[in-house]
Write a structure and sequence with these properties.
Layout: H1 2-17, E1 20-21, E2 29-30, E3 42-45, E4 61-64, H2 68-102, H3 107-131, H4 139-155, H5 158-192, H6 199-224, H7 233-253
């Protein structure tokens, strides 16, 4: 009993000290050490099977915390993405009644695109809450502006509504592509340095790819539905795309 008690006092604290807990989009923490969210300190997490074996006999997995610049990029990306999906749901909500009234056969298409945008919006709402990222301060403004854009283009006719969709999805698809490209560069850099890529960042990349592909599907649908035949197409395309770029730039910052 005396020997068992000594072993319990000696090894139990060590086992507890080697149990990592998760953190935001990468790095591990030890239970006995809390690091600031934006720290760039490198930590070394041993395999759980090495608790009673000298660590010199095993290779440790190395994880790194996000730098302040990387954390800022992700906060901004999630905030803009949520704002963009908010706008998309408002556009489709406003477009659907006039379009379906004059073209009843388009109801399934409009419902399908809206359902996908609503799913995207829900995804980013969850990610913002999970990672404690504030929404853009322009949230109320974007709701009104997107509703007005959707209703206005629908009242101009089916082709104009589709031209609006084409312009919006062109900008949004490119925006998601840029985010995916940046995160893949991070992952390659981590792998080249022998660092472990966290599961959350890999899941985020896959989520962004899926959403990007669905947005580009909407773009293709809009072109098939005669977007380019809209009256004043070139001007409408430039105005809507310019508005999207401006909204992205503002939402990244406030």
């Amino acid at each position: 009993m005396i020997v068992a008690g000594a072993l319990h006092r000696t090894y139990l604290p060590a086992l507890r000290a080697q149990t990592p807990i998760g953190d935001f989009l990468l790095p591990g923490f030890f239970n006995h050490c809390q690091l600031p969210r934006h720290a760039s300190t490198t930590t070394f997490i041993p395999h759980s099977s090495t608790a009673s074996v000298p660590q010199s006999h095993h290779k440790a997995k190395r994880r790194v915390l996000l730098s302040k610049e990387q954390q800022k990029f992700l906060d901004s990306a999630l905030r803009v993405n949520q704002a963009g999906e908010l706008a998309a749901t408002r556009i489709y909500s406003a477009q659907t009644p006039p379009i379906v009234k004059s073209h009843p056969h388009l109801r399934p298409m409009m419902q399908h695109m809206y359902a996908q945008e609503a799913g995207h919006f829900s995804t980013f709402n969850h990610l913002l809450a999970r990672h404690r990222v504030r929404p853009t301060a322009m949230y109320p403004v974007w709701k009104i502006a997107a509703t007005a854009l959707g209703w206005g283009t629908a009242m101009m006719g089916r082709e104009a509504a589709m031209a609006c969709t084409e312009a919006v999805e062109t900008e949004i698809g490119g925006h998601y592509n840029n985010q995916v490209r940046e995160l893949l560069l991070w992952m390659k850099g981590m792998e080249d340095r022998g660092e472990e890529v966290g599961e959350e960042i890999m899941e985020l990349v896959e989520t962004l790819k899926k959403i990007r592909d669905e947005e580009l599907e909407h773009l293709d649908t809009a072109v098939e539905e005669d977007a380019k035949k809209a009256e004043g197409y070139e001007l409408l395309n430039r105005v809507v795309r310019g508005g999207c770029k401006g909204a992205i730039w503002i939402s990244e910052r406030i």
